[in-house]
Amino acid sequence: MRLALALGHVDVDGMLDSIGESRFQEWMNYYELEPWGEERADLRIGTLAAATVNLHLKKGARPFRATDFMPYLVSKPEGASSTAEIKSVLRSVAGGPRRD
């Protein structure tokens, strides 16, 4: 589906029939080297968000990672920030009231 979307195809089966198995494998290999799409965009903005928030952390606080700002990820690594921690830091950066 992602490849079809990237290539502008609405008929996924037709696209797969037209490119063949070896060409499809080449696309899969290319995606491994240079991913595209919304997940990659989310990683980029997560990197920016983490860098921005990390500038305002108290000394000794665990820095945020880009994936901390990608809540749809199923499993969070151990020690990942809670949603409340992220909200608290974002409010302090934005100058808003703290509501923990």
List keywords for this structure.
100 residues, mainly alpha, 4 helices, 0% strand, elongated
Describe the fold and architecture.
- By secondary structure, the chain is mainly alpha-helical.
- The protein is 57% helix and 0% strand.
- It contains 4 helices and no strands.
- The protein starts with a helix and ends in a 6-residue tail after the last helix.
- 4% of the residues are buried.
- The mean pLDDT is 79.
Topology:
Layout: H1 2-7, H2 12-33, H3 38-54, H4 83-94
| Count of helical stretches | 4
Bulk shape:
elongated
Residue runs with pLDDT of under 50 for 5 or more positions: none
The percent range for helix content is 55-70%
Succession of helices and strands: HHHH
Tell me the quaternary state.
single chain
- Beta-strand fraction estimate: under 5%
Question: How many individual β-strands?
Answer: 0
Mean pLDDT, to the nearest integer, reads: 79
Q: What would you call the structural class? A: mainly alpha
- End-to-end gap: 40 Å
The main β sheet shows up as:
none
